[in-house]
């Protein structure tokens, strides 16, 4: 038996043509001839029925959720690499505790608001603390899977904010913010699109398959509100308003983080089927292609504009492509995905420039551009590039007219108004109460020592002149 | 006794060390420094923002010698450190008042 198996294996690997194929066809017959034929046949039938669709759904969705959870590491590495060594421990703490506090909050409040029984299309209101589910029922078993998948998405939206307000935010106010995002801001707009709310009940419901708007734009727009109210880091702008560079301390960590995020995105997008079904492969293809063209687009744009292919901008480009394809990953063709990624790659560089030099909002990691701007862009692109051959809906470029595009624009606009508006309110309340910004001398010393009482790189000599 | 302080290109350190060895000068201290001179600076860009970098990475050598070895040490640093382009660095020679060995307490070791 084992001899036959290994010989067919080597035949497959060698691809030796006709003779090998003949051997392959013979192998099962030989095996049956040597064993008890009837027994082997019934065992094979039992094996076919072993994995039910429900169990397959649970397995795939859970694996995807675990991949998405790992994206927390990606965000942590990108953000720590793009900021200075003196604040490394602080940014790692923020990435750890927005997940820890965010998961708990999403369990207690957020999930019920997002996915509970709909009220007026605006919010859900049931199943807090997952009270409706137990492992005794199939609904419960699936429910836990679904909750975990939704939870890691909520945490993703939250963690986006930490990068944009890095190196100057009070840790306590960031903790409170994490709770508010996962408990209120994210679930409400999430309900509108994913939880049966009003944006999902339009004549042409908003298509945001894996969350360009629901997850990324929400994070990006709250980040915009935060960075705006927080003000720039000390030394970011000269007295006459010229932008200065504050280089991040480790490009290797940035690269590692981007690759981890890219890897995790194969859970984020294909996993958003929340079912083991065949189009997960298409979604992986569109996701990967958009990331590639996003990286290429950003690298070439930076090269043309600045004379060199900027390292961290190029890596931002891959993320921009991923964020942009997230809405339409199941509705566009691979060609469409490449165009969407390319546009996002170009736009992210222009957007980082615009936010930095014109709006003069200090976003150390480019989170507002990558997640807010490219999330909105990708959501709008579904209205243009949706192909009836892939997701059953036609966008403008496939003869579907403007109907879908108008829905997409409505989704982008209303979620912007909600996330940016509520972000402004929350940051203002925090500013008036616990305070959002550390004192100037603490910022100069570094948040590691002043907020956490220890350095991230003990024993290393960090040499900076600012 | 003299203290010779030299600022050289980091990539010439090995050549300078070998020249010093060849002249039987085995004791020296090396530190990383930033500095500016005739070489001026260079520009970097980071995320689309131009950065003027006018402090360059250099290596600082300190060599304590007695008067007999002064010219040998200078010669060695010159020979090992020279590329002929701006930025090769400078040598300063200072009078050295005393030199003691910590292990033995011995005074006047040079």
Summarize this structure briefly.
By secondary structure, chain A is mainly alpha-helical. Chain A contains 17 helices and two strands. Chain B has 110 residues and is of the alpha+beta class.
CATH topology (fold) name of the largest domain in chain A = Ammonium transporter fold
Average pLDDT value of chain A? 90
Query: Number of helical runs of chain B?
Result: 2
Mean pLDDT of chain B: 92
Write down how many β-strands of chain B occur, each being a DSSP E stretch of 2 or more residues: 6
Helical content class of chain B:
10-25%
Number of strands of chain A: 2
Beta-strand content bin of chain B: 35-45%
The Cα radius of gyration of chain B reads 17 Å
Shape of chain B: elongated
The secondary-structure class of chain B comes to alpha+beta
Low-confidence stretches of chain A: 1-35
Identify the CATH homologous superfamily of the largest domain in chain A: Ammonium transporter AmtB like domains
Give Rg of chain A in angstroms: 25 Å
Question: How far apart, in Å, are the first and last alpha carbons of chain A?
Answer: 71 Å
CATH architect. name of the largest domain in chain A: Orthogonal Bundle
- Largest interface (C-beta under 8 Å): A-B, 19 and 10 residues
Can you tell me the number of structural domains of chain B? 1
Topology:
The complex is a heterodimer of chains A (466) and B (110).
Chain A: H1 2-14, H2 18-34, H3 37-48, H4 53-81, H5 88-115, E1 118-119, E2 123-124, H6 138-164, H7 171-194, H8 212-230, H9 251-268, H10 280-306, H11 311-328, H12 334-358, H13 367-385, H14 388-391, H15 403-432, H16 440-445, H17 447-452
Antiparallel strand pairs in A: 1-2
Helix pairs in contact in A: 1-2, 4-5, 4-6, 4-9, 5-6, 5-7, 6-7, 6-8, 7-8, 7-15, 8-13, 8-15, 9-11, 10-11, 10-12, 11-12, 11-13, 12-13, 13-15
Chain B: E1 2-8, H1 13-22, E2 29-35, E3 42-46, E4 49-53, E5 56-65, H2 70-81, E6 90-95
Helix pairs in contact in B: 1-2
